[in-house]
Amino acid sequence: MKRLFLFVFIAVLAFGSAIAFADNDNARGQGSGQKAPFKPQEVFEQLKAWEKGFKLPDISEIGEGRAQKSFVISASGNVKITDAEVLSVSGTTFAVKVWGLNIPVRTSSSTSFVVGKLRDWSFSEMKIGDKVDVMGDINEVNGSVEARVINAKISAPRIGNEEVSRLRSVVEGLIRQLQEALRKVGKPLPPGISPVPSASPTPSV
After folding, report:
1. How high is the pLDDT of residue 150?
2. Is the pLDDT reported for residue 140 higher than 70?
3. Superfamily, domain 59-154
4. CB atoms inside a 10 Å sphere around CB 80
5. Which run of H or E residues covers position 22?
6. For the whole model, what pTM was predicted?
7. Mean pLDDT score, 50-76
8. Is residue 112 a contact partner of residue 100, using CB atoms and an 8 Å limit?
9. What are the pLDDT digits (tens) for 30-41?
10. Is the pLDDT higher at 128 or at 158?
11. CA proximity to 68, closest of 176, 129, 153
12. Three-class SS state of 162
């Protein structure tokens, strides 16, 4: 009986010592800067907090020209690039840079070019250094973007200057037509209309 009592006493003492040792070891680990392992649910709770700051520009922001820098590819391959800088332009393709990434973009006859809700524009108007938004589809083979819509974030002064140049060309063309018509009947231009030099003929090859 005494032996049994002694055995139980030693077993309890050993178990208590093991618990105390484990607690002391944990305390040393925390004191040395080691992090306690995360539980999976705690990780996803942190991700929920992170996701609240995961802001994506919407179409209304793009249309108003105030979309901030982003590059998003959906699970279905849709691409939205906003506030990217044009790095190069060649043929029907160009390259943009956003968040340190260089992305090739391809255009086609079905690509729409707009300046917000102000007006349309053309690929020929694109310049290196322009800021653009691109909506399209990713090419999973080479990583290029097939553009559906390209929105140019062109400043108002530049739009105004380009529009003035365009209208000036239209007016000059009309005056040339009037000059030619009046020349054929031997009459001068009406007062107040300055003559416009005839367009230089295209040299034959």
Report:
1. 94
2. yes
3. Nucleic acid-binding proteins (2.40.50.140)
4. 21
5. helix 2-31
6. 0.57
7. 84
8. no
9. 555 566 666 888
10. 128
11. 153
12. helix
Domain boundaries, given as residue ranges, for the chain: 59-154, 155-189
Residue that the structure tokens 């102000």 belong to? 118
Contacts 24+ apart (CB under 8 A), 138-145: 138/73, 138/77, 138/78, 138/79, 139/106, 140/77, 142/104, 143/103, 143/104, 144/93, 144/103, 144/104, 144/105, 144/106, 145/79, 145/81, 145/103, 145/104, 145/105, 145/106
pLDDT value, residue 174: 78
What single DSSP character describes residue 187? -
Angle made by CA atoms 54, 144, 146, in degrees to the nearest 5 = 90
Within 8 A by CB and 6+ apart from 89, the residues are 126, 127, 128
pLDDT higher than 70, residue 85: yes
- Classify residue 116 by its DSSP letter: T
179 contact partners, CB below 8 Å, separation of at least 6: 189, 195, 196, 198
- How far apart CA 68 and CA 189 sit, in angstroms, is 53
Mean pLDDT of the chain: 76
**pLDDT at 197 > cutoff 90:** no
Of 63, 203, 90, 197, which is closest to residue 144 (Cα–Cα)?
A: 90
Type of residue numbered 44: F
* Single-letter amino acid code for the residue at 204: S
DSSP SS3 for 188: coil
